[in-house]
Write a structure and sequence with these properties.
Layout: H1 8-13, H2 23-38, H3 46-65, H4 70-77, H5 81-90, H6 103-108, H7 114-119, E1 130-131, E2 134-135
Antiparallel strand pairs: 1-2
């Protein structure tokens, strides 16, 4: 005789003793513990503190999972890639090379092209665009 089959619902209800507790339970316990340690002291900006504390390990785990593919990580997190990069910088998780100079400033420093230099009349000389009476 075959053993009875377990449904997917039954399997989900089982807790594995070796695994960590659900994230919600861990967060709830950590927040309660933090509030108990306040011992009546004032606290402000708790929301920002909790989000900042949770974001960093979340980003680290997702980046490890995606082998540091930021596009894939951003898609998993439901964020724009630029937003993910901004948050990674805030947490010090983005390995940046030395900042390069903006491309526009490099263009401004170029020497004038020969066409531009030839078009400008020099002092005392006339060009094909000028006549003895002045400009055409």
């Amino acid at each position: 005789m075959k053993p009875p089959k377990h449904s997917a619902v039954t399997k989900r209800r089982k807790k594995t003793p070796s695994g960590p507790p659900p994230l919600r339970d861990s967060a709830s316990e950590a927040i309660r513990h933090f509030l108990e340690t306040l011992d009546g002291e004032a606290c402000s900006e708790l929301y920002d503190m909790v989000i900042h504390q949770v974001e960093e390990p979340l980003f680290e785990a997702v980046l490890d999972y995606t082998q540091h593919n930021q596009s894939h990580a951003a898609a998993m997190l439901g964020l724009n890639r630029g937003t993910l990069r901004k948050k990674l910088r805030q947490h010090g998780l983005l390995a940046e090379s030395e900042p390069s100079e903006p491309k526009r400033s490099a263009r401004r420093r170029k020497a004038p092209s020969s066409r531009t230099a030839a078009a400008k009349p020099t002092k005392g000389k006339t060009t094909s665009k000028t006549t003895s009476k002045g400009k055409r």
